[in-house]
Amino acid sequence: GWSVLGMGHSPISRAVVADKTVVDPEALALAIEQAVAKARIRSRNAITAMPASQATRKTVVMPKDLSEIEQENFMQVEAPNHIPFPLDEVRMDFEILGQNDVEKNSYDVQLVAVKTEDLQQRVDALAAANLVIDVMDIDEFAIERVMRFVTAQYPLSDTNEHIEALIDIGHEFSVLYVLKDGRSIYTREQNFGMKQLTDEVSRRFSLSAQDTQAQLSLEKESSLPPEYHNEVLPQFRLEVASQINRLIQYFFAATSHNRVSRIWISGGGGSLNNISEEVHDLTGVKTAVINPLGYAQVENGVDPAYIQAMGPSFLTAFGLAMRED
Prior knowledge:
- It is built from 10 helices and 14 strands.
- It is an alpha/beta fold.
């Protein structure tokens, strides 16, 4: 099984990372150092991930009877047909997925490329935080990995095609991942997140951004005025459910699918009280908050309440930790 040895986070602002682009590498490095210190992690070796929105991901058909060197050469020749940037401006890698359904003597190969400039920003930030990157993954692959793990704990009993929808509700953006047989088949990003709640609390109660973040913390949320609990939070929760329903309708419109088997909620939105019930009532689909750390043993020094509250925000981190190489 899995054990949580350490866990920590450090908030950052748009002045540090905006639209998933690193604006201030030094401030990002400081935030990483603080998170690692809070988690009491001593290892200097790190696994991290690029946003899928900054990666090009294509499936390429490759002959089976190639040596490793020949595979590398084949992909170097084939890559320019699939990557919208010059090869000298990207870093790329590939993974053999399995036999091609049509051409039995060929493999389906997943090709992934990211711009060197985008990758280097993250490498530099982690280096400034005194960390060495062992692996640079893509966040969508980490999501796939942890979703296969979690859905195995809760197998669906119906015999219909199993389509799992995961909505990761971040600070500024929410991302829908739709998975079939453990593989992502659709993603869509929406400009909506927990920032709408913090902005409304700040405006309604005349609080600074820093004070708002403090008031919305697990320990202090109950001290907010009744207006927050009776009006602000229920309205925001309904808006979250509406946004989730809208994202799923986009999926139906863009594909041949017309149903999902289950909805999972992760990210900061997973901490909202009764959010799964709100989404279920609006969509009619079985809904649950996903907390992969809930399946792990908690070591001494790690607060179980912290895992319960923050676990839904650590989905990508858990998926990265699950790597076997």
